[in-house]
Amino acid sequence: MKSIVEKLQVENNKVKAVQLQDGSVIEAPTVIAACDPHTVLVNWIDEAPVSAKSLISRWQRNLPQKATSRNWMA
User: Fold this and answer.
1) 73 falls within a domain
2) For residue 12, what are the domain limits?
């Protein structure tokens, strides 16, 4: 099964579920993102951790346009 990840659902600073592009949600006690941190922190999480804010600001200043990516969950 290949599905495109839309976002990660976070509660109390912990990822609780993965929402797929088709709207389905997969809950899990542990979620491992095997992709670049930019995709996770900028595209998939609504509110990034405070500790990542300066890194995200640097990425946003240095990117000429929003990168697009297709990320699959197998």
Assistant:
1) no
2) 3-67
Name the token pair of 67: 């990168």
Residue 31 included in any domain: yes
pTM of the model: 0.70
Residue 62 lies in a domain: yes
Per-residue pLDDT of the chain (74 residues; tens, 9 = 90+): 688 999 999 998 889 999 999 999 999 999 999 998 889 988 899 888 888 888 888 887 876 555 555 555 55
The alpha-carbon radius of gyration of the chain (Å, integer) is 13
Q: Please list, residue by residue across 3-32, b when 16 or more beta carbons sit within 10 angstroms of its beta carbon and e when fewer do.
A: eebbebbbeeeebeebebeeeeeeeeeebe
Name beta bridge partners: 72: 4
